[in-house]
Amino acid sequence: MATPIIFLILAIFVLILSALLFLCKIKPCCECEICKGYLSTSWTLEFKNLCDWYSHLFKKSPTGTIHVHVLGNVITANPKNVEYMLKTKFENFPKGRQFATILGDLLGRGIFAVDGELWKLQRKMASLELGSVSIRSYAFDTVGGEIRNRLIPLLESNNNDTVLDLQDVFRRFSFDSICKFSFGMDPGCLKLSLPVSDFQVAFDLASKLSAERAMTASPLVWKIKRALNIGSEKKLKEVIKMVDILSEEMISHKRKNDFSSQNDLLSRFMRNINDDKLLRDIVISFLLAGRDTVASALTTFFWLLSQHPEVKDEIRAESTRVMGKTEKEKLASFEEIRKMHYLTAALHESIRLFPPVQFDSKFCQEDDTLPDGTFVAKGTRVTYHPYAMGRMESIWGQDCLEFRPERWLQDGVFKPQCPFKYPVFQGGLRVCLGKDLAIVEMKSVALALIRQFDFQVVAKEQTPRFMPGLTATVRGGLPVVVQERQQQ
């Protein structure tokens, strides 16, 4: 009995020692206002979110770049720097071993955690699959079925004074949809009873705990916890094992049956890859990217609509022009969705202000100098910040804080912006391959709900506060009261 106690005391001692060593290391290294503000969290006195404080700092910076020395991080909101990192000097700014170490236990060798030849191989395969007409048709049909058979019936069943968390609904919807698309599996999270899915719970917790690694004061802390198998690292190991088991079962089931005619992403990759572990890593990466980002974008979009009912009215008017005066329950076809330029503009404008991935980091491989003159030493973490970039007057003009879909329209037609001033889908060689699929999914969901329901957001005057994580999740969700819209 004494041995486990001694082991635990030793583990605690090592953790405290590593934390003290880290604090001793950072304390004398910088007395600048940014580092003091970060370490003392004094920014919370004025800003609700860390990303809002960063936005404030970028506006004060002549170059749009700041240094958080205690984190060894150069952070930029300068489009020229973003283009340099993602395109001009792409090879010198990989994801890096540090990133792979943080997320490697969950993502393995998946496309979002690797560089070099393995990344190029997966990128090429994913590009061929996601660009095919058949996979786009399969994705559109999958989303449409989930909207028609589950999302709308769920909202109809809550068509009263009951408060419903719309963020939770969108997370369930997107998890069902992406699991069907990626695995050909239906977790049934959006059934009327709102059941708890073991796979969803395990996946969510694995994502959350993996993200917390990046926010730990020193990587030594979580690495020691992992080595000793204690605390959050013990739990992370447990939930990743659950994800692994369920993934292995799905792959094994497909191998025993004829997957050659199935259209889900896993079946398509299985035709060319025999390594089951790599298959698991690839599909888990797509699951992570396709689930949380869509739910996050839809959540903040509907919050913005509650602030701007005129945008909602214009979306309804556009749908009538495109679809005619049909029943509000009718779902738009793919061609009709494509013709709705104002809806496309409204979604892009929403994501400009509230990108699902608020920042993204690379690691400098060799000493370099960014276009704004910032020197970056080898091994430095370099972060570009889409959330802050959407709030820069130098990029979007004096009305940058306004929700104005019209900025995306030219003679009524949607006009994309430069990806390096709007890097919410990245840009250059790592531009998001699922961008078009995600936009169509979000348009399909938004249009179906706006046409059929009215949403009264509870405490809509409260600006969203975000929880720490890989994607932007609103703290407390988005509580709404749903009402059936009267046909006009």
Automatic annotation (TrEMBL):
Coiled coil: none annotated. The lineage of its organism: Eukaryota, Viridiplantae, Streptophyta, Embryophyta, Tracheophyta. Gene3D superfamilies: Cytochrome P450. This is Cytochrome P450 94C1. Residues 1-19 form the signal peptide. InterPro entries: Cyt_P450, Cyt_P450_E_grp-I, Cyt_P450_sf. Belongs to the cytochrome P450 family. The keyword Mitochondrion does not apply. GO terms for molecular function: heme binding; iron ion binding; monooxygenase activity; oxidoreductase activity, acting on paired donors, with incorporation or reduction of molecular oxygen. Pfam families: p450 (PF00067). Keywords: Heme, Iron, Metal-binding, Oxidoreductase, Signal. Its cofactor is heme. Heme binds at C432.
